[in-house]
Sequence to fold (194 residues):
Amino acid sequence: MSTSIRTFVRTTLDLGGATLHPWGREPAGPELLDGLVAAAADPTIALWNPLATADHKAARTWLEAREDAWDRGTGAPFAVLSATDGALLGTVNLRWVDRADGLAMIGYWFLPDARGRGLATRATRAVTTWGFRTAGVRRVELAHAIGNEASCRVAHRCGYLLEGTLRESHLFGDGVHHDEHLHARLATDPEPRP
Ligand SMILES: CC(C)(COP(=O)(O)OP(=O)(O)OC[C@H]1O[C@@H](n2cnc3c(N)ncnc32)[C@H](O)[C@@H]1OP(=O)(O)O)[C@@H](O)C(=O)NCCC(=O)NCCS
Fold:
């Protein structure tokens, strides 16, 4: 498959109660910028997925980079928004590691109030399936610090098999290189159980 066929095309995915919307300059009202600032200040996100969105100016720069990823076809970053009031709940990001080879990586974070109701699992499943079906993704990798049990559960729930341990592979928000679990899902793997 050629890289021109392996393209992430901006789309909106309906999860029922929440919507996955491509990140970009739009929508970027003050509430959404506040949500990004709150995400950066959350200690769990700051530890496992530090965000450079400490204020509105930084959040706008962050949004420009997401817009650019869609424009250049290097990534598919989605905002997860409440279907009722459009409030920011979290994010799921699928991006190419090797586009020519169909190898991608997925990541996510959710605001504290949105956690613990299966939303991260449903959103990550939806983006994974979308990548396989529409963008020619062949394999998606998911890595998380071994101490991040919630992320490990999301990976399992979404059908990402544990393939091994990467030693001191990533620098996290506490300034420590943690060991990570490497999980992955292939386009040919069966859909995980609901
Ligand atoms: C990881 C994260 C997205 C999970 O969000 P969530 O809303 O709790 O996820 P879900 O509701 O879909 O729950 C998924 C599973 O995690 C489990 N879980 C949630 N919090 C947990 C915790 N602190 N410890 C252990 N398991 C936990 C849930 O019980 C559920 O497992 P189950 O389906 O077997 O019962 C969220 O904790 C987060 O944003 N963390 C900070 C950023 C981050 O870690 N990003 C990932 C970097 S790799």
Observations:
- The first strand starts at residue 13 and ends at 14.
